[in-house]
Amino acid sequence: MLRSGYLPHVKAWSSVVSRLACLGDDGPSEAVRLFDSIMKRVQRFEDPTIVSDSKPDTAAYNAVLNACTNMGERTKFLQVFDEMSQFGAEPDVLTYNIMIKLCARADRKELLVSVLERILEKGIQLCITTLHSLVAAYVGFGDLETAEKIVQAMREGRRDICKILRESNSKTPDQNEEDIFTKLLPNSNRENDYDPPLLPKLYTPNSRIYTTLMKGYMKAGRVNDTIRTLEAMRNQEDSASHPDHVTYTTVVSALAKAGSMDKARQVLAEMTRTGVPANRITYNILLKGYCQQLQIDKAKELIREMTDNAGIVPDVVSYNILIDGCILVDDSAGALSYFNEMRARGIAPSKISYTTLMKAFAVSGQPKLAYKVFDEMTKDSRVKVDIVAWNMLVEGYCRLGLVEEAKKIVQKMRENGFYPNVSTYGSLANGIALARKPGEALLLWNEIKDRCGMKIEGEREASKFPSLPPLKPDEGLLDTLADICVRAAFFRKALEIVACMEEYGIAPNKTKYTRIYIEMHSRMFTSKHASKARQDRRSDRKKAAEAFKFWLGLPNSYYGSEWRLEPADGD
């Protein structure tokens, strides 16, 4: 329509923006791109009446603000927010609900109360969804205490929620004038010597708010609190607070996560008794619980019960769980069988379906089969190949020590616009260790070191990999590389890796490196018959070895005297 010169009605194009904003992959960025494209066309007309049906309204702005939030684009959020008044669109309660999510995504917990106060100060009609958004934000931060205070205050019929949140704030808002949130929430810079506004009326927590709090308990492993909340909901007078299928599913999830599958099945039976039918999500959670407990037979039983008794058809998530369960019990044939069954039923595989099946073949030492699945994935227009799929290919070859094949995959990955990440490098490091090719470890470390921004004394600062984004290595990757270097007597490189570990707050395993050194290199440089030329050639290596021994705390040339295991004569 746009290419043909037609401007769609605002309700049409804003619904597309809204849908794209909630999708994964590039959905939010596509939503922003579409919004910008329409705005350019709308702004071309000097007479606004010509495009009155296409100009953005508050709902359209909310859709694109949600996309900006999902992308973490705070600057773009502020730009769009400021443009609202140009088209007569005023922020409503949903706008500020989205802003609560933005504060949560930006790790600005201290600003949540400012959003609520801004809504009240502007006279915008508050809704229960705003209070739910606040509870969800605090649960997301792991601050269950404040989330409980909000719910308890609502149960007690209190209107001073703002005061409660102010008192719970352990951090004062940032006073930086350039801060985006200062412009979005001008009230956030105000001193706390004022009476926080009251809610316009009383709000009772509904089942959605209770369930969100229960999800917080579940994530924290507080199963008993999850069950107690369910019991409290049952005794509520207000029917809007009674447990629904989402509530029961949350309890099932908490029990399954704790490994209490029998109790989870009892909750499922209770759902049937109370007239709250379980849905596909409930069954999928139970399936996952059985698979994680390696009870694949019970998972198969449940899938039959789900289909025959409950009349619920398994979806792609159900099959992904079963495929992953087969991997856990080393049944790659079973994983392939479920994948084929899924397609035979007309269920389109998702990105996770392909990568999970690739994982099955990679783990079982069949990288060529993993590559075949990858080829099918690239031909499927409904899914988009991502870094996880590429990493599965690399992992498959590295598990067999086929480093050269893995490097070819990495090169193809780069040619397709994907950069190696920590998982890619971790697989390569493990493959190099398995293949016993320490020289490859040096090349790999040089690339990682460059992407970490480490500056080693005596080395040129110019980056050899300027096109690669920065990298934050993890403990597993650095420990594997250090292990390889210590075994190969590359002590200078081992010290570089150790320095990198300490820079990122990772404690090196000195005990392990000491054991490797003593077992493999304790007699190094002890020959008294080496020629002068040979001694000169290995002087640098000896210095590096002495420095490494110094770091380990072993006797070395840097100490004034040697350690003694027995008392000296005369002691």
Lay out the secondary structure:
Elements: H1 10-21, H2 27-42, H3 58-71, H4 74-83, H5 93-105, H6 112-121, H7 128-140, H8 144-155, H9 161-168, H10 180-184, H11 207-219, H12 223-234, H13 245-257, H14 261-273, H15 280-292, H16 296-308, H17 316-328, H18 332-344, H19 351-363, H20 367-379, H21 387-398, H22 403-415, H23 422-435, H24 438-452, H25 475-487, H26 491-503, H27 510-521, H28 532-537, H29 539-552
How would you describe this protein?
It is a single chain. The chain is globular and about 90 Å long. 38% of the residues are buried. The protein has 29 helices and no strands. The protein has helices at residues 10-21, 27-42, 58-71, 74-83, 93-105, 112-121, 128-140, 144-155, 161-168, 180-184, 207-219, 223-234, 245-257, 261-273, 280-292, 296-308, 316-328, 332-344, 351-363, 367-379, 387-398, 403-415, 422-435, 438-452, 475-487, 491-503, 510-521, 532-537, 539-552. It is mainly α and 571 residues long. The longest helix is centred in the N-terminal third of the chain and has 16 residues, at 27-42.
User: What spatial form do the alpha-carbon principal axes imply?
Assistant: globular
Care to count the β-strands?
Answer: 0
Distance between the termini: 96 Å
Our count of helices gives 29
Biggest sheet layout: none
Strand content: under 5%
Mean pLDDT: 88
Instruction: Indicate the radius of gyration in whole angstroms.
Output: 30 Å
Low-confidence stretches: 560-568
Structural class: mainly alpha
Helix fraction bin: 55-70%
* H and E order: HHHHHHHHHHHHHHHHHHHHHHHHHHHHH
